[in-house]
Structure formats: C-alpha cells, structure tokens
Write a structure and sequence with these properties.
98 residues, little secondary structure, two-stranded antiparallel ribbon, 1 helix, 4% helix, globular
Length: 98
C-alpha cells in the first residue's frame, strides 16, 4: 500500500474549531432515528428525534411531526460563538401552526 510522505496528507475541509460548527445531513441508512440525525461535524447524537426519515429530492430528508423537534443536549462549541446562522429547506405549502 502506498502511503503519503509525512506531512503530505489532505487537509480537512472543515477542521475542528473551523467556521462550520454543526451539520445534519439526515442521510443515514439505519432505522435508528438518533443515528440518522447525528451532527456530522463532531458525531453529536440527539437525545430525541420523533421525525421520520424519507426520500428527499437528492438523498434523504426528515418529515416533521406537529409541535415536535429534534432535541440535542448541547451543540458542540456554540457557546463560544457570538452569533450563529441557521438555514434549512422547507417544502412550499407546508402546514404551519400559529
């Protein structure tokens, strides 16, 4: 097996402590809902996930339940951040409450 010379290795796209603090791809292939909602940056698992994993436009997605949410005990090193930006995609025409 060929091995790179010492110091000649690929650099992580998002190194620990980098700008991306949390990422959920929802692309797991297991029936365990906690494993399918894992934080892909630091392998932080939720304490509850009542959502169902379904086929998305590209890969997998989660289908929500009224008045429910995916719950995490903590979010990595967010406490050290002064502010955060959160983004998500929602199907148009989805039912919303209040």
């Amino acid at each position: 097996m060929d091995e790179p010379a010492l110091g000649d290795f690929p650099v992580d796209v998002n190194p620990p402590g980098g700008p991306l603090k949390f990422y959920q791809a929802f692309d797991g292939s297991t029936a365990n809902p906690l494993m399918n909602a894992v934080d892909s940056i630091k392998a932080n698992f939720p304490s509850q996930n009542p959502f169902t994993t379904i086929d998305g436009i590209n890969g997998k997605a989660v289908q929500g339940v009224s008045n429910q949410f995916i719950k995490f005990g903590s979010f990595n090193d967010w406490a050290a951040s002064g502010s955060v930006t959160i983004s998500f995609w929602s199907k148009g025409g989805s039912h919303t409450i209040g």
